[in-house]
Amino acid sequence: MLCRNESEGTKMARETWRSPVGFMLAAAGSAVGLANIWRFPYIVGNNGGGVFVVLYLFCLLIIGVPVFIAEILIGRETQKSPSGAFKMLGKGAVWPFLGKVTIFTGFVVSSFYSAVAGWILGYLVEAIKGNITIFTSGEQAATHYQHLVSQPLWTLGYHLVFAGACTAILVYGVKNGIERCSKVMMPMLFVLLIILVIRGITLPNAGQGLQFLLTPDWSKATPTVILTALGQAFFTLSLGQGTMVTYGCYLRRDDNIIANCAPVVLMDTLVSLFAAIAVMTIVFSAGLAPTSGPSLLFQTLPLIFSKMIGGFVFAGIFFLLVTLAAITSEISAMEPVIAYLVVEKKWSRRAATLLCGSGVFIVGIPSALSFGVMQDWTLGGATFFDWVSSFCTNLMIPLGGFFAVVLVGWVWGTSNAIKGLRKGAAQLFARGPWLDKYFSFCFKYAAPILIIFVFLHKIGIL
Ligand code: PHE
């Protein structure tokens, strides 16, 4: 995936993607993951259905896409890890610190992400054993899920295996393994989701599920819902935590950023929408509650696999693909910490990866136990998992994205940014002269101001 380009300066700068397709696959691998397949359907369910989908798409286009492009641009221009990159473009003491904050966020995300990905891995094993294709009602599927996630050995065991696998890949196999596996995995995941969507919409009462997703009820557009939509747009594009800055720094200086990023956003959005359609049609057809939270995917899909011809095989392939999608996302969340330790602190890659992997496992333990032995350890009614995941997705990630876009729009300046974006994209800009204005406007005004608005709204100042 990455290859060495000896002609350039630092060790970091020498690593580049083999081709723009390599970048696209890695970025799509990072973006498409549990946030699309597991998280999106349940937060749509918890936040009013259609209204959330519309707000999410709005946040994605007006804020998510410019921040995504800004982060890739920061990485490509500086060819440095987030801390070095923020320092180079931002000067002063505060920017390198903010760069480090984004790296820290990525680390915390990878801890609770690994805990949930562990369930997916556990469900893959359950699927192979034939344990999740025998349900006749949604309650049975829900009870089975409750039983599994409340067992500390089950959750911790799979969390350990998942974090260990990602650590091993990061030590040994990023260069070839992930690229090859992404090439096959992404299209397969897509096809399988389409099969599930078709199965979902042909179920009795599926229309109610579609209606729930497609008819916005504007009375439900509360500040919390808007902030959740913003957090989801950032989380799913892997923004605000150094990942895309780090992936951007492996681009060549004349790679066309816009053309390489657009397919990533499109693919990511389609996967989220397909997952939501599949899950919601099943929810309404089986008479389940759309608001059951993190357990939703595990209650619905096993039920449909139980009813499908060949469901056993589909279940196995599905959980395998989602596990692989989660691996490509997890390693991208861990990579900024490792890149920082290697490039700026001169650690060996092996030591940096082992430290990061162990940290991810240890910090993820309370998240993994939050659905069982620690479910009563609550503060303000929320478990450790609830706290840490909403701290990251609703606060740290939007803040990280805000810093990146302010750095580009205000500190480095929009004229430098547009010059950067034009590299390798002269034809695109000639065909679409509005791109100049669109990106200048988004970097400087739309994205930062809207993020501030959402925050002020949320804390009740507006
Ligand atoms: N984008 C990933 C997903 O959708 C999650 C992620 C967040 C990965 C941040 C890396 C960094 O699952």
Biggest sheet, strands in spatial order?
1-2
Overall pLDDT score: 90
User: How does CATH name the architecture?
Assistant: Orthogonal Bundle
CATH class: Mainly Alpha
Helix content: over 70%
Describe the structure.
The chain is mainly α and 462 residues long. It has a single domain, classed as Hydantoin permease (Orthogonal Bundle), CATH 1.10.4160. Helix content is 78%, strand content 1%. A two-stranded antiparallel sheet has the order 1-2. Helix 16 (384-422) runs antiparallel to helix 18 (434-458). Mean pLDDT is 90; it is low at 3-14. Residues 30-31, 33-36, 106, 109, 235-236, 238, 241, 243, 329, 332-333 line the site of phenylalanine (PHE).
Features:
18 helices, disordered N terminus, 78% helix, binds phenylalanine, mainly alpha, two-stranded antiparallel ribbon, single chain, 462 residues, Hydantoin permease
Summarize the structure in short.
The protein is mostly helical. It has 18 helices and two strands.
